[in-house]
Design brief:
Length: 213
């Protein structure tokens, strides 16, 4: 599913990233009212126009594939028109899902284009319906711990292989990472469920509406 859209002004794109099976495409389908359309692990970007409730502008939503190498290909061709970035996480997937999401976030947040455009960032804890009753997942704290470790391992890899450093430093190297360190990029958190028949995308819709004003 790939919809080509021409003639859009720069700065109206909202890109959805995240690991495979986090639910990005299900969310995309719900937002664009394509309920009932089968979602599969894709190898191309899904693109469509969306005007959020209360928004004055139409956004171009871009759902990028979750697989690393495929996502990198589409990311390079779509990142230059970035207004907002949504990282979707499977909140029911435990430490594995958090680790995979942290790896995606590290790649996009250290990208020099992202650093220059300063998009608003939403970290969306999806699949809330799969969590046991009463269980809360502190996605922010877990991601900050993972990103602190990733920053160390990525830097060590670059220094030992002699590779050229083309990325921006993530946060302050002399401190454990926290999202406040990448200001003026604003990082926010929300929850969602894209289950057919009981979807709850209210927090995401509120965030998109603010972007589209």
């Amino acid at each position: 599913m790939y919809f080509l859209i021409f003639g859009r002004k720069k700065g109206l794109s909202v890109v959805f990233v995240g690991p495979s099976e986090a639910g990005k495409t299900s969310i995309f389908v719900h937002l664009l009212n394509r309920i009932g359309q089968e979602t599969v692990i894709s190898t191309v970007a899904n693109v469509g126009e969306f005007k959020p409730p209360g928004g004055s502008q139409t956004l171009v939503l871009k759902d990028l594939p979750g697989h690393d190498r495929v996502r990198t290909k589409w990311w390079e061709s779509h990142k230059s028109r970035l207004l907002g970035l949504v990282c979707v996480i499977d909140s029911s997937g435990g430490s594995k899902a958090i680790g995979e999401a942290a790896d995606v976030l590290y790649s996009v947040l250290t990208d020099s284009i992202v650093a220059s455009l300063k998009p608003r960032v939403l970290i969306l804890a999806n699949k809330q319906d799969l969590l046991p009753p009463g269980r809360e997942v502190n996605v922010k704290v877990q991601l900050e711990k993972e990103l602190t470790m990733l920053r160390l391992t990525k830097s060590a890899s670059l220094s030992t292989t002699g590779g050229a450093i083309t990325r921006k430093q993530l946060g302050k190297p002399d401190r454990d990472f926290d999202f406040e360190q990448i200001s003026p990029i604003k990082v926010e958190f929300a929850k969602s469920c894209a289950k057919p028949g009981s979807a709850n995308l209210g927090e995401l819709l509120d965030w998109l509406s603010i972007l589209a004003r």
